[in-house]
Design a protein that fits this description.
Length: about 425
């Protein structure tokens, strides 16, 4: 018997704030979390803006010693994981630890540590490389640290699919619970890649926006868009089997009802221009949810603000929904406010989608001013809108390498 899966806890560290409430308030009000980079001197860099996390205190979640022993992505991941677990109200002393999992990935892993330690080795020799270098850089350490902190002994994994990482982690957790392998799982993504080598690498890939005004840089689906903006942070959700959640009186935010994952088999960075892979992932998510395109009330798009992604995703939505239906579905890219959190993007966008259904409010795509003939859907321009009757929503993530992941969420109505 297949089991229903609900969301009972959420945690977020984002450019809009380091809690779910501050993040969601920023999205609802169209606040831009993108600004000039403060982490390093950008004098010699073409790109000088990013969605950095601001005002975050890691010692709320770990000791000063542990902060020094972890890369920033893992620190963000642990913070979001602790928030989500505490929000869920779960008591591990009353749980079978073998039935509680953690699936939290990172698209890039400890890039800041790699940069720092290679410089140290070049300057001072190999004997001066930190003994914690390996554990600080490998991408599974967000998941590992969360599991250690809460005592979860079930599946502990780090799925890496570039910018689809967070979504694929949540999708895998959903399936593990649905098919009886776990009772609950913390799932999401974490990223801390705003550093010199990270910004230089994406800049030279010609992927980043060269806009000088940070408040206008990320403009998904706008004709004048010219690249994405990097962001840092983490999002973690507690997914739980419905009866398990009800038995302990948990607060339920929403339900995961479908998941689709495909590969483009096309190019290492460019999406398939006709959007076939992304469209198939959306169809698979709807099929598992048992709904038709006409029942989809909102789509949180991948919407990176690159020409190739936004055109391809628009085509994918039309292909999956049918052109006439697609034009009636509100679509927004919350990356316009957060920047692109790479492996954590799908996780914070899942939270945004769940909150949109819970509160009946659809967040906007800010900085949308010049329509593009190739992007002709309803992108909720500049101001969010009420949608009290919204019942089903999709959250899309499309990663380098052709990875497509789509989650389907349902509003929780108490039954």
């Amino acid at each position: 018997m297949e089991r229903r899966v609900v969301i009972t806890g959420m945690g977020a560290v984002t450019p809009l704030g380091s809690t779910v409430d501050s993040f969601w308030d920023g999205l609802k009000n169209g606040v831009c979390g993108i600004d000039y980079i403060k982490k390093f001197d950008t004098t010699d860099f073409k790109v000088k803006i990013a969605g950095e996390v601001k005002g975050f205190d890691p010692e709320q979640y770990m000791t000063k010693k542990d902060v020094k022993r972890n890369d920033l992505f893992a620190i963000y991941g642990l913070a979001a994981g602790v928030q989500a677990f505490e929000d869920s109200g779960m008591d591990m002393e009353k749980e079978d630890a073998d039935r509680i999992g953690v699936i939290v990935g990172s698209g890039v892993g400890g890039l800041m540590t790699m940069e720092e330690q290679v410089r140290r080795m070049d300057a001072k020799g190999p004997s001066r490389v930190s003994p914690m270098f390996i554990t600080m850089t490998i991408g599974n350490m967000a998941a590992g640290n969360i599991a250690i902190r809460i005592g979860a002994k079930g599946v502990c994994e780090n799925i890496v699919t570039a910018c689809a990482t967070g979504t694929n982690c949540i999708g895998r957790a959903f399936r593990d619970i649905k098919h009886g392998y776990l009772d609950a799982c913390l799932a999401g993504g974490a990223e801390g890649s705003i550093c010199e080598i990270g910004v230089a690498g994406f800049t030279n890939l010609t992927a980043l926006s060269t806009e000088e005004d940070p408040k206008k840089a990320c403009k998904p689906f706008d004709k004048e868009r010219n690249g994405f903006v990097m962001g840092d942070g983490s999002g973690v959700l507690v997914l739980e089997e419905l009866e398990h959640a009800l038995a302990r009186g948990a607060k339920i935010y929403g339900e995961v009802v479908g998941y689709g994952a495909t590969g483009d088999a096309y190019h290492v960075t460019l999406p398939d221009p006709d959007g076939a892979g992304a469209a198939k992932a959306m169809k698979l998510a709807m099929e598992e949810a048992g709904i038709t395109p006409e029942q989809v009330d909102y789509i949180n798009a991948h919407g990176t603000s690159t020409h190739a992604n936004d055109c391809g995703e628009t085509r994918a939505i039309k292909s999956a929904m049918g052109e006439d239906v697609a034009k009636g579905i509100p679509v927004s890219s919350t990356k316009s406010m957060t920047g692109h959190l790479l492996g954590a993007a799908g996780a914070i966008e899942a939270i945004a989608t769940v909150k949109a259904l819970e509160e009946g409010f659809l967040p906007p795509t800010i900085n949308y001013h010049v329509p593009d003939e190739e992007c002709d859907l309803d992108y909720i321009p500049n101001e969010g809108r009420e949608a009290k009757d919204a019942m089903y929503a999709l959250s899309n993530s499309l990663g380098f390498g052709g990875h497509n992941g789509v989650l389907c969420f349902k509003k929780w109505t108490g039954k």
